[in-house]
Amino acid sequence: MANEKISRMKQINEILSKAADAYYNTSDTIMTDAEYDRLYAELEKLEEETGVILGGSRTQNVGFEVSSYLPKVQHPHRMLSLDKTKDREQLAQWLGSHDGLLSWKLDGLTVCLYYEDGKLDRAVSRGNGEVGEDLTANARHIKGIPARIPFKGHLALRGEALIGYKDFERVNESLSEGEQAYKNPRNLASGTLRSLDSKIVAERNVNFFAFALTEADNYDDNSFANSLDWLESLGFQRVYGELVNAQNVVEAVGRFEKNIAQNDFPSDGLVLVYDDIEYGKSLGETVHHPKNGIAFKWADEKAETTLREIIWSPSRTGLINPIAVFDTVELEGTSVSRASVHNISILKKLDLAVGDTISVYKANMIIPVIDANLSAAEHTCEMASSMIPEKCPACGGDAVINRSDDGIETLFCTNEECSAKHEGRFEHFVQRDAMNIAGLASSTIKTFIENGFLHDLSDFYHLERHKDKIISLEGFGERSYSQIISAVEASRNTELYRVLYSLGIPNIGRAASRLICARYKDPEKLIALTHDELTQIDGIGDVLADEYVDYFADNSNAESFRRLLSELNIAKDNDDEAENASPIAGKTFVITGAVHIFKNRSELKERIESLGAKTASAVSSKTDYLINNDSTSTSSKNKKANELNIPIITEEEFMDMIK
Known about the structure:
The chain contains 26 helices and 24 strands. Strands 12, 13, 14, 15, 16, 17 and 18 form a 7-stranded antiparallel sheet that branches. It has a 5-stranded mixed sheet with strand order 2-11-10-3-9. β17 (399-403) and β18 (409-413) form a beta hairpin. α1 packs antiparallel against α2 (33-50).
């Protein structure tokens, strides 16, 4: 029996370690907080029962080893996680006769700030609690972190850097087609703060909220609440909190709970800290958590209901997502009747069938989630499989099941003319690398489609026909209409390869469009290109040639291209002159690893291609240079480059090369 328990402990540790690695080092989330907490609690119980704590146990570690490319910094003091509870009454018991400060537990990235002589000296992420990442350059662009303060001694504090829901939605809407959307604000904040381009941090509107003063020369106020007030007086944003005692803490939790829906900043619970700082310090700490504070996490309110239907919702990417519709239940003060099932794999895992009794809750009191299928034992997964449609509900086209490398099954519409995909086509058209029509967010494009303003790509250049209707739409007005029209007019002056790329021809990206337009500059010739003519272009293979020819073989696509060209002023192609003057013309580059001079790899690729060179995804005998800022990396691309004696250069060396 003991061996079985230890085996289970090993299994849980492995699962939790993978989850922690994803959470702390890749800004990803592979399980919900509720799932993590359940497994963590099970591990603690097994350790207590067996008296065994395995090496590397997650109960003895905080965070995970940092694996990013930012400089590492040793924390002067270990940063520990707080112990937690979901029992409101336990908060009162924990306080006893002492006062405490109850505040939001913000869901972002914990950052330590150090000031010397009134200036920001260093900002460091929590990392694994002992070693963090140097975020100083980015911290200077975060709201709530003053560059100078009216305090000249040594100062250290901790807080949470995060991105609000509105900015989270704005960033996701601005992503180019093919870029994976961020799952939640915490993932976005974590990835943004690890960027080596501070401009990105400023653009994404990251905010910092101080939640603890850790060191300050000659500061002797013993009140935790007063210390946060003092930090606010120095120019910091601070987390909102209320002073409470054992008699009113439960009531205070209720007040916080009512405000969750109105909060723009994400939170995953509350934090209660003794207001008496010296008393809190006197309690000491365990290997995992300090004893001066405790975290409160909302206990998920669950309800049982009956599944009535699985509806399938097509998206602009072609994915058809399952949505569970069930008898209405009240959760966290709102009526809930549906929840996303996300993909076929989850549908099968839950073994859902119409008529099943299911348990549902709202993750972080916001997002409806199916917790369990209470009727799963009554049938087999064949029931779930039988509900997967063979046709797309939007267009009637064939629906096929795709299986990713990690085994996730999704449903996909194969019809390129599916009405649900039009939105994606127009979004691709306006993006920066294509026609660069600024200010046309996904929501605006969707509204214009629904109101019949957009049917063809050329319709963007005739929006003035709908001026009165646009101005009268909710959220629009004369000013927003004028801004849109100005952006549209500015896009009329463009380059031929951008127009070709804007069409969204399958597999014909920016690089391929540039190669094709460098060879053939007559738009009519572009429409009539043959497979053989395309494959004679270095960098265009059979697959790309087939996709290209098939696209223009459809007369409606050719006519749409002609209509679009009639609205535009195509700039004279200077590619030949640029290539002749470029020191890298004709060379082939492969890019791997993180970049820091350029905003992202796409920007670096665009720079390479604009100088008459090519980019490839894999290292081969045709590769001239591999760009990797980490020349000591043991990646497969580095190994291949070394085998073939291909130079591995940094971004700095590339910049020297093109001067």
